[in-house]
Amino acid sequence: MNQADYSANVERALASNPHFAGRTLRFEQEQDRIVLKGSVASFFHKQMAQEALRQAGVDQIENQLEVNWV
Length: 70
Prior knowledge:
With 70 residues, the chain is α/β, with parallel strands linked by helices. The protein has helices spanning 3-15, 43-55; strands spanning 26-30, 33-37, 39-40, 60-63, 66-67.
């Protein structure tokens, strides 16, 4: 899979997940590793973002999402 397809899969996985509607999650691609950035409402959502990427075929994930309780 080329880099553009890989990025598109990650974007689709995050955009199609109902847990992240209206949230601005960002990611950086470094080779086959994805670094997740942004903020979510709970640790559950942080984990769900990571699992959404795993289901999209991402093996290496660095989850830097911040939990914002407000």
